[in-house]
Write a sequence for this structure.
């Protein structure tokens, strides 16, 4: 299918020079985007690969009339995670079974497997605890709980590797993952976090597959005072992201975060699109993208493992975000992912709000899942 024919006319905004030849504003992203066609062999080469140029629309946030959304009081990890299936069943296990014996450990093993920790990891973990119990290293449920806590933390500590921004200007984050996992929301939250840290961030509306996706990203941009580079629906995603990278470079932005589609007509289509995005970026910065951040829905259980495996084949994933761990997620998939892939878990999503994205903290996560104290029966 020829994407060229599907193209819709680019949207224009008042900040955008409407016609060629008009003098672009001296400063601002619109100027950067409008000046993209400046002669350069590298650009010509990249352009040759991209669909015919379509002016990028810069969704420059309006001057801040009202202050951006105030940060709501941050709730603790425990408050957010206590609703999870994992936390609930652990709590009830220890209530039903306050005595330390083999039955408790059998039930614990089943519980871990049911919570998506994975069979192998659950068995290894429980057998370790069983040996220690038989050696009388611990003799009551409190001590077992403490040992369980340490074992779970030990599984996650190796993947507690926060994303370090730096070394490249702009630092390019390419966000990937299937539809509905929370990519766009995560990008919005990241924009908010980094903007709050005083960094200059630009977003690229690279999910051109669904009209709503572009609008959704623009809304996040407006709400959090972060510019969004977009073209019309069905625009070439690589072209949007290329324009955004150009704009980010000429503006001296510190971070560019690109959204992508989670599904195209075929798996091959997605593969082609993501590799084209990466290829085109490299014309401007051979090291880009500096982070390929895969977003995974924490409620999808073991399916997350096969999703990650697929994306690993399509594009080298360098970090993970696990979303929707608030609410009903079982949460165990975080352990399964850590064990199976060992990829850094950069952030977790603990809600839908702008400030509900936390830097992954193994200990805080495990503490949120486990009962604080054991109820006495
Ligand atoms: N409860 C909860 N919902 C989330 C979280 N992250 C995203 N969502 C919701 O998941 C849905 C899909 O998110 P979206 O960002 O559009 O997914 P995308 O298709 O991957 O871009 C939206 O309703 C989001 O509000 C999270 O951490 N917790
Ligand atoms: Mg999206």
């Amino acid at each position: 299918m020829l994407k060229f024919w599907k193209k819709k006319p680019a949207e224009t905004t008042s900040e955008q020079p409407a016609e060629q030849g008009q003098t672009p504003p001296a400063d601002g992203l619109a100027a950067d985007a409008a000046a993209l066609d400046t002669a350069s062999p590298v650009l010509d080469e990249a352009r040759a690969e991209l669909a015919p140029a379509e002016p990028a629309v810069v969704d420059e946030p309006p001057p801040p009339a009202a202050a951006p959304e105030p940060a709501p009081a941050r709730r603790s990890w425990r408050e957010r995670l206590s609703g999870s299936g994992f936390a609930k069943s652990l709590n009830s296990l220890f209530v039903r079974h306050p005595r330390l014996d083999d039955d408790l450990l059998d039930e614990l093993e089943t519980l871990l497997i049911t919570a998506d920790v994975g069979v192998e990891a659950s068995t290894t973990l429980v057998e370790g605890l069983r040996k220690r119990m038989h050696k009388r290293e611990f003799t009551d449920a409190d001590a077992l709980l403490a040992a369980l806590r340490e074992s779970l933390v030990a599984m996650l500590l190796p993947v507690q590797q926060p994303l370090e921004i730096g070394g490249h200007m702009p630092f390019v984050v390419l966000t990937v993952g299937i539809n509905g996992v929370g990519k766009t929301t995560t990008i919005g939250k990241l924009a908010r976090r980094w903007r709050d840290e005083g960094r200059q961030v630009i977003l690229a509306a690279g999910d051109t597959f669904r009209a709503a996706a572009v609008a959704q990203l623009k809304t996040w941009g407006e709400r959090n005072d972060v510019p969004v580079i977009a073209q019309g629906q069905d625009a070439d995603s690589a072209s949007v992201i290329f324009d955004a990278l150009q704009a980010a470079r000429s503006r001296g932005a510190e971070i560019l975060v690109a959204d992508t589609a989670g599904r195209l007509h075929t798996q091959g289509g997605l593969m082609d699109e993501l590799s084209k995005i990466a290829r085109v970026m490299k014309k401007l910065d051979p090291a880009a993208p500096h982070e390929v951040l895969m977003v995974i829905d924490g409620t999808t259980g073991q399916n997350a493992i096969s999703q990650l495996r697929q994306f690993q084949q399509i594009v080298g994933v360098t970090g993970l975000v696990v979303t929707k761990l608030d609410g009903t997620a079982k949460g165990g998939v975080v352990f399964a992912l850590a064990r199976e892939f060992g990829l850094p878990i950069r952030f977790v999503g603990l809600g839908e709000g702008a400030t509900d994205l936390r830097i992954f903290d193994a200990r805080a996560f495990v503490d949120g899942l486990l009962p604080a104290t054991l109820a006495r029966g």
Observations:
- The chain has 15 helices and nine strands.
- The pocket of magnesium ion (ligand 2) is lined by residues 183-184, 207, 213, 259 (CB under 6 Å).
